[in-house]
Amino acid sequence: MTSESRLRDLSAAGLASKLDGDVLWPDDMDYPEASTGYNLASNRRPDLVVMAESTKDVVEAVRFANVNGLAVDVVATGHHGVRPSAHGLLINTSRMNDVHVDGAARRATVGAGARWSDVVPLAADHELRPIHGSSGHVGVVGFTLGGGLSPVLGRKYGWGADHVVALEAVTAAGAVVRASAAENSDLFWALRGGRSSIGIVTSMEIELLPANRFLGGGLFFDGADAERVLAAFAQVTATAPEELTLSVAFLRMPPLPGIPELLAGKFVIHLRVALIRSAADLDVLLAPLRESAPVLVDTVQELSGEGFEHIHNDPVDPAPFSEETAMLTGLTPEVQRALLEEVGPRSTTGLHIVELRHLGGALTRVSPTVRSIAAENASYVLWAVSIGMPGDNAAGIAEARALVGAMGEWSTGTRYLNFAPDDGRPDTTFSAGDWARLQQIKTAVDPENRLRTDEPQPRS
């Protein structure tokens, strides 16, 4: 009897009958989508997928894995890429997308599979908003556990992880625990920035903020003007108020269906803008950027809280891509020259997206309830993306690594977890002290390393 046949028999006898959800096998029609998610470069081939619909389902899946010696992985929307893997049990939480908003308490309780598009409209009904990402299709829990860098609210209010009130999680032993600053505080600290290697979060309670309209959108420039635009970006971000969040992206998008004509097959600079202030303030703040070079398209406008997706305009359809990242200490003329040499108009890079996101403000202040995100010495996050399946994209992956290497002199030495590839170097996303503490917690809660992701592993 093959391993898969044995597992099928065991599942039919002891697992499937206990679930609210379903079990998928490699020959099931829904298996490929359930095991991969948004980033098609994540080539998972688990022995079985549990489509969880409740915390009870997650508990049963983990207990089944323990009895049968299976590694456990977790996916919700699958935006974060992972290395190709085979065997084990994958828990897909995408069906656990319940959202409850308590307007009076300014709190939202979200299931493990909820997306920002599930949460933001419900919060807006109460004139509230969460610390969200750039896309409504990204999962709330994964985004937040990886730090939660908001392109609208982060510089003013901090990381999404800073606004977690409490978590419900299933441990590697199959126990359900509640974690907060007052209860299981080590687990609470570790999960907010350490992700799912520590425990499988099944629901999360987050703080909500007043939902004011804001100004947001983008300025598009010809790639030939990259040097002038980057210099203006450095000038504006050096003195920007916390209410202003900017990022600049070097875009070289392929001429594929669904890519806007403005971008397809061209080198374009996209300045992303969000301001929680008046239009008059915005005109003054953006003047150096608008005057730096001819603006091809200006989409900056007043937006409701639900309009946040119009800033980055992230693609909705799944695609294969690989990424790399670094945190930079500054954007001096020397740093600008180094970056332009790698990805500017005279370079031959094949990288499709290279973005610099401005940090500072609340993002670089230590949280009162410290979480495991190493950003206190960083001023910018560098993010590089190459589109393609890993087997066909060796050159792009190498270019992304080379870019980060070229910027190493001005790097903090740490990486933002949500942008970091699964390359076997999870320690580089944390400070040395936080990494040691995460390993201690991992060893205590999962000594057999049942929950296997690229994040903290038990100490040997």
TrEMBL record:
GO molecular function: FAD binding; oxidoreductase activity
Cofactor (UniProt): FAD
InterPro entries named in the record: FAD-bd_PCMH (IPR016166), FAD-bd_PCMH-like_sf (IPR036318), FAD-bd_PCMH_sub1 (IPR016167), FAD-bd_PCMH_sub2 (IPR016169), FAD-linked_Oxidoreductase (IPR050416), Oxid_FAD_bind_N (IPR006094), Oxy_OxRdtase_FAD_BS (IPR006093)
PROSITE patterns: FAD_PCMH, OX2_COVAL_FAD
UniProt superkingdom: Bacteria
Keywords assigned by UniProt, alphabetized: FAD, Flavoprotein, Oxidoreductase
Domain FAD-binding PCMH-type: 42-211
Family classification: Belongs to the oxygen-dependent FAD-linked oxidoreductase family.
Protein name: FAD-linked oxidase
Source species of the chain: Conyzicola nivalis
Species classification: Bacteria, Bacillati, Actinomycetota, Actinomycetes, Micrococcales
